[in-house]
Amino acid sequence: MKASRSVKGDSIRSNRVRNLVVALGDQLSRELDSFRSFDPDQDAVWMAESLAEANHVWSHKQRIALFLSAMRHFRQELEEKGIRVFYTRLEDENGARGLDESLSEFLNSFMVTGSVIVTEPGEWRLKNAFEKLQTRLEVPLEIREDNSFLCSKSAFEEWAAGRKQLRMEYFYREMRRRSGVLMNDGSPTGGKWNFDSSNRSSFGKRGPESVPAPLRFKPDTITQEVLQLVEERFPNHPGKLDSFAWPVTAKDAQAALADFAKKGLPEFGRYQDAMWAGEPFLNHSLLSSSLNLKLLSPRVVVEVVEREYAAGRTPIESAEGFIRQVIGWREYVRGVYWRYMPEYVERNAMQAEHALPEFYWTGKTSLNCLRQSLGQTLEYGYAHHIQRLMVTGLFSLLWGVHPKEVHRWYLSIYVDAVEWVELPNTLGMSQYADGGVMASKPYVSTGKYINRMSNYCKECVCRPDSKTGDDACPFTVLYWEYLMKHEKRLETNPRMSLQLRNLDRFTDEQRGELLAQAERTRKWVMEDAKN
To answer: Are 73 and 249 in contact (CB under 8 A)?
Structure first.
């Protein structure tokens, strides 16, 4: 292995450095605490592309490409600043080794006189691997806290201590108070903590009339090389690469943020839950991958959004709704992840045991809402939060898919998926598999919700209000089956009382008919996917 570039300093030109900073694939920022006191004349950076990481789950081609391209661009940025980078490309990797194994082998032939420094990984599996590596290395390995977040792990634990329920809304309010974001003299700006009631609009029959196209980025030479590599090395992985246009540098991410603030943010709040056929992006920011790779700071994002509101260029509903995603949900799910791992991933409160339907990987289904959401997911590695929660997530919940299978799919298929954020959103919020840690109730609905928030049902072979017959909507049929199956488990949940009262109106004969319809529907869905 050789360094990419030499810089001034006798020690740096030899096979020794003072401190070696490890930069993982989702830690692409010099603002991290691991770079504190970094001296280019004495220190260096170690980075490695890992086949084991790329294959940890059956990742979407664009997800692999995004990580590799962003890493290679970060390496270039460091070298341009005179920083020595020890970098292993996927083409040069000797076998499918884990990152800890690769680092250990590197250190066998290289001397670090100070410490190896790494920012805490965003996945329990990797953190555990590096903690074990600490005990094996002769050189000190220092794992520093990830300072890119707005709420430290200890601060979250302090907030969570003694609480019977960890509701995001109360965490979010505390974050607002601590930060002063959208606050006036101790009270929330606009007189309310959230404006959810104003942020649930659909596009109506006319559809989205003036949705601005988001800024997309033409692949440069580095990205083009990565795209070719991914196509060659991972030909059987899901997804396509033709449409790859994600930000892969901090400069790109800043440009994407500025573009969203100008074009998408003003109407984001009002239409954040809306869906429309053939419109994968709508008013959404497409910034989550940049945030999760640390190409973009959440502090900067919040400052920009708050500034747009203060200048009168965006309404409070949009500013508050978007900021809640950043300082509320994003920080909250990270706290939940670290509080409950590693046992959290094994939870299955609703005892779901079915396999994930094959069409989640192919998009081949006559159900238009799923075909639309899965189709764009396979095309771009992207779907917005309502498509994930109330289409793909809702169907897998009603189908009874084992939550770990659902988790693996979400981690595999979306470009912004890093386990600390993906797992709680999937296992807890979407599948209710954590038994109510995150969500106060299962997010279950008939097909009427999808019909209200989109035009998907208009072109579907099934009708959202039909629960029996040839045109019965699987969402509606399986909704009633779900309530019947889990009636005893859910009867003590006050937020499910209205839905269970509606179930009580059915006679035993009607329940039997619904269960028979559910069996027929399941067979039809699977047969349809084969055609």
So the answer is: yes
Name, in order, each residue with C-beta under 8 angstroms of 221's C-beta and a sequence gap of 6 or more: none
Condensed to tens digits (0 to 9), the pLDDT of residues 46-104 reads 999 999 999 999 999 999 999 999 999 999 999 999 999 999 999 987 767 899 999 99
Q: Are strands 44-48 and 85-88 parallel, antiparallel or unpaired?
A: parallel
Sign, CA dihedral 420-425-426-431, equals: positive
Read off φ and ψ for residue 401, nearest 5 degrees: -75, 140
What span, in angstroms and rounded, lies between the C-alpha atoms of 486 and 431?
Answer: 13
Cβ count within 10 A of residue 185 = 4
Enter the tokens of residue 437.
């840690």
CA distance linking residue 225 with residue 192, whole number of Å: 49
* Backbone φ, ψ for residue 46 (5° rounding): -115, 130
More confident residue, 91 or 118: 118
Which residues is 354 bridged to in the sheet?
401
pTM of the model: 0.94
Neighbouring C-beta atoms of residue 136, cutoff 10 Å:
10
Task: State the CB neighbour count (10 A cutoff) for residue 157.
Answer: 12
Locate tokens 């192919």: which residue?
362
Side chain identity, residue 338: W
pLDDT of residue 531: 81
What are the CA-CA distances from residue 101 to residues 9, 15, 118 (Å)? 29, 19, 15
Contacts 24+ apart (CB under 8 A), 127-134: 128/342, 129/98, 129/99, 129/100, 130/100, 132/100, 133/100, 133/103, 133/104
- Residue at token pair 């017959």: 469
Question: 183-184 and 187-188: which strand pairing?
Answer: antiparallel
> Which residues are 394's β-sheet partners?
none
**DSSP single-letter state for residue 217:** -
Is the CB of residue 104 less than 8 Å from the CB of residue 136? yes
Helix and strand numbers (H, E) in the chain are 25, 9
Find residue 226's DSSP bridge partners.
none
Question: Do the Cβ atoms of 239 and 381 come closer than 8 Å?
Answer: yes
Residue appearing with tokens 């490695």:
48
**Cα 521 to Cα 385: distance, rounded to the nearest angstrom:** 26
**Confidence category of residue 353, pLDDT binned at 50, 70, 90:** very high
What domains appear along the chain, each with residue ranges and CATH number? 10-144 (3.40.50.620), 153-214+264-340 (1.25.40.80), 359-530 (1.10.579.10)
